[in-house]
Amino acid sequence: MEDETKGQPGPTTGKEYSVQGFSEVEVSSVVGFEITQSPNYSVRATGDEKLIERLQVEVSGQTLRIGLNCSHRVFPGFSSSGNVKAIVTMPTLKKLAASGASTGTAKGFTSGDDFDLTLSGASGAEIGVEAGKTTVAVSGAGRVTGELKAKNTELELSGASHCELTGTGGDMRLDSSGASKANLSKFQIQNADVDLSGASQARINMNGTLNVDLSGASSLEYAGNAVVGKKSVTGVSKMNQR
Q1: Per-residue model confidence as pLDDT tens digits over 33-91
Q2: Beta bridge partners of 165
Q3: How far apart are CA 206 and CA 33, in angstroms?
Q4: E-strand spans in the chain?
Q5: What's the CA gap between 195 and 181, in Å, rounded?
Q6: In a domain, 53, yes or no
Q7: Which of 39, 88, 168, 241 is the most buried (most CB within 10 A)?
Q8: pLDDT the model gives residue 132
Q9: Residue after which a domain boundary falls, among 38, 56, 91
Q10: Is residue 65 domain-shared with residue 129, that is, in the same domain?
Q11: What pLDDT, in 10s, does the model give residues 46-61?
Q12: Cα torsion through 185, 191, 197, 202, rounded to 10
């Protein structure tokens, strides 16, 4: 039988899913997402009718998993920009993981709980989150933007990933490699441990102690009332104060 997801996109449709009780979300397979805070749980998918039929939505433990059935190919030109989108509301978001070129937003969440964000492949997220300790890991060509207010922050960037945040981050650890870029000039932090390698670049704004390990062809620009503590700059790396 010919795969019905081949050929041109079909008509658009929407579908509601009766799931609840989750605090973590995993999105995969080029599915777009829009996640917002609400006292009520809801999940709705909109997009191409053929692909909605292939969309899998399930809750396992505390995790809501959303993705396409990968045993079926999709039509040419498929992207996460408008073919299938999952619209989710939930009281608390403790973890968000997006893979397989999935992109979307997660906004309106305010909590003292820890928050974990993982983006891989060419996935991207725009966030609006206030949380406790926050861990962000971005790899491949992933991208994270938006506003974050965190008690403490850990950022791990690799590949050709990109991070651009505003807000506050408390004490921060930044580990960046490959050709990753971190623009944190509007993200106020206190103390920072920064480890850059490869051709990675970072811009930070801080008022505490700065410990630095730069290697390869990496570069760091920092602003604020920083006091440089431990410092190692090797290769053709450079470090400048703005």
Answers
A1: 999 999 999 999 999 999 999 999 999 999 999 999 865 455 454 544 448 999 999 99
A2: 146
A3: 33
A4: 12-17, 24-27, 32-37, 42-48, 55-60, 63-68, 84-90, 95-98, 103-110, 115-119, 124-138, 143-157, 162-176, 181-196, 201-206, 209-214, 219-224, 227-233, 238-241
A5: 13
A6: yes
A7: 88
A8: 98
A9: 91
A10: no
A11: 999 999 999 999 999 9
A12: 0
Statement to judge: residues 40 and 107 lie in one domain: no
Give domain status of residue 8, yes or no. Answer: no
* Beta partners for residue 93, in sequence order: none
Instruction: Tell me, yes or no, whether 87 and 125 share the same domain.
Output: no
Side chain identity, residue 164: E
Q: Which residues pair with 89 in a beta bridge?
A: 36, 42
Domain span at 56: 17-69+83-91
User: Is the pTM for the entire model greater than 0.85?
Assistant: yes
- 3-state DSSP assignment of residue 50: helix
Please state the domain count of the chain: 2
> Among 39, 31, 37, which Cα is nearest to 15's?
31
CA-based angle 14:124:7, to the nearest 5? 45
Q: Residue 158 corresponds to which tokens in the numbers above?
A: 């690799």
What Rg value do the Cα atoms of the chain yield, rounded? 20
Tokens of 205: 């704004």
Task: Locate 118 and state its tokens.
Answer: 């993982």
**The one-letter amino acid at 95:** K
Residue 60 lies in a domain: yes
Q: Partners of 231 in the beta sheet?
A: 212
- Identify whether the C-beta of residue 141 lies closer than 8 Å to the C-beta of residue 122: yes
Residue 100 forms part of a structural domain = yes
